Amino acid sequence: MGPIKISGSEGQFSAHAPLATYESPVWPSVGRGAKLSRLTENGIVTTLIDEKMTRSILLIAPDAAVANNTARQLQTEFAELAAVVGQTSRFAELIGMHPQITANLLFIRFEFRTGDASGHNMATLAADHLIAHILTRYPQMEYGSISGNCAATKSRPRSTAS
Q1: Which of 37, 53, 127, 135 could pair with 5 in a Cys bridge, judged by C-beta atoms 3.0 to 4.6 Å apart?
Q2: Cβ(59)–Cβ(131) under 8 Å?
Q3: Same domain, 138 and 72
Q4: Which domain holds residue 24?
Q5: Is the pLDDT at 157 greater than 80, yes or no?
Q6: How many CB atoms lie within 10 A of CB 1?
Q7: Is the pTM for the entire model greater than 0.70?
């Protein structure tokens, strides 16, 4: 579709964007939106706030106290967790960790820098290794999910538009 006119913190440009859908009624609507972007002075205005990839894992504890103690201990072991990530890729870097507890469930949202790659696979591989490491160090915890529904993706405005 396009071209779509985009402007913002990364500059101003026009780009064609793929539209992957079999819902043919959507095509004219998206086409009208692309046309409208070209009729305005700035087009679609974006602001790049941050550039990272996240994965939110889910671990299950016997109770909330164990989940809380594990979360607190993991926060003191950030350097060790970063080293685990460093072994999975020469580009992946652990830059943040945000635990959240709901009852006996421990959600941990890991933030990664992934260089110039979008980093979907890189972040998933790193999260998988982090889970294995955590479960080895904390045997009272159980695997819940590699995707705890709190993850985000990294999009580069000059190459994709969402």
Answers
A1: 37
A2: yes
A3: yes
A4: 4-46
A5: no
A6: 16
A7: yes
**CATH number, domain with residue 63:** 3.30.70.420
Domain count for the chain? 2
Same domain, 133 and 118: yes
Max CA distance (Å), the chain: 59
**What percentage of the chain exceeds 70 in pLDDT?**
92
Give the tens place of pLDDT for each residue, 66-96.
Answer: 999 999 999 999 999 999 999 999 999 999 9
In-domain check, residue 32: yes
Q: Give the gyration radius of the chain's Cα atoms.
A: 20
pLDDT tens-digit map of 55-64: 999 999 999 9
- In this structure, is residue 157 part of a structural domain? no
Which amino acid makes up residue 34? Answer: A
